[in-house]
Amino acid sequence: MTPRTILLINPWIHDVAAYDFWVRPLGLLYLASLLRAGGFSVRVIDCLDSAGGIPPAALKRKEWGCGKFPSERIPTPEALRPIRRRYRRYGMSPALFRRDLKAAGRPDLVLVGSMMTYWYPGVFEAIAEVRAAWPGVTILLGGNYATLCTGHARSFSGADVVIAGDGEVALPPVLGDLVGGRVEIPCDSGDLDSYPYPALELFGRLESVPILTSRGCPYRCTYCASSLLSRRFRTRDPFRVVDEIEHWLRSRGVRHFAFYDDALLVNSSERAVPMLGEIIRRDMGCTFHCPNGMHLREITPRVAPLLFKAGFRTIRFGFESASAARQATTGGKVTTEELRQAVAYLREAGYGQDDIGIYLLCGLPGQEAREVEEGIDLVRRAGARPILAEFSPIPGTALWDEALRHARYDIGNEPLFQNNSLLPCLNPDITLTDVQALKLRARLGLPAE
Hints:
34% of the residues lie in helices and 16% in strands. It has 15 helices and 16 strands.
């Protein structure tokens, strides 16, 4: 008999630092809607729910839907103890999680998601809590960690089945094997417009809503896992994207939306331009945020003013490095001249210098401090705001082998060491004091020496 009740769990973050930049378990929420459309009874527990039993004001959350997670200090994993960083559980308390488990009732099946590879201790804790609450229930594990570190997850997570890849593709045959019959989820994985909206209505309070206009990315940057997590670049109809925005505005009063795309502006004449024009035409009074790095190459005299007029206020772009050689070898998605031109278009459209965030990678294998300094100064001179992003080595990426050679820790066997906060591939000629100076230079716009 096919299991009819499935509980989906987004686990805690265990880390030395975490901040809620419009975080929602979008993959799990799409799966929840798809499973429900396939006839299943679905429940969701999000351990990162910003409510967490704590009033938003107490967490110093911002009105547009981002801010601090509730958190508490927990014992540091043995592998990280020599690093001497305070380790915390981010999200709801375990007591609140157990209360929600009890309220949900014993399901036929539990599906646990996962995000960053080095957040796996939170995944393991959630699985252990489910085991304690409901001995014998079948637990499936999917998501980014399960896909990128499949062997580690199968060996240590405690899940009965580990699923790698897109859940809507990988889950039906797994369910079929478990129940001895055919299980179908009603969607065409090649057509994102065939998917129902994510099951955000299962949340009590919605400060903001995440939106996807595409999955994957046509670029193959050597440090990025996008092509590993979604092997095809698939896009949605831009007008249907605006329909979804209006749906959440009308049904839940949401006015803040965060785009999760890896390639929001790619093929802008066919995608972003009509979407932005339609947002402007409908005049919904919403504000949009893009915490992921958009592509500077796609900013044109046509696109920049549309972004501004449509209400895009948090805009971030990937530049990564001022080194022409590094730009070429890591994927060739942008040049220094394209940065300057894009920023000029954005400034002309109405954005101020501090509105335009430009990500620069710090801690790449073999990278010297001077390269980061030059990037910071270049971005400032161009008229934008530099934002340092610590490099995180990701298994399976083109840069992984080089990262293994330069790593200060055993990143190949212990995913905890893949944490960007540890700067695992930092050049030995760069001290942590140097890194703090670089961060200060980025924040304060200190002049070049």
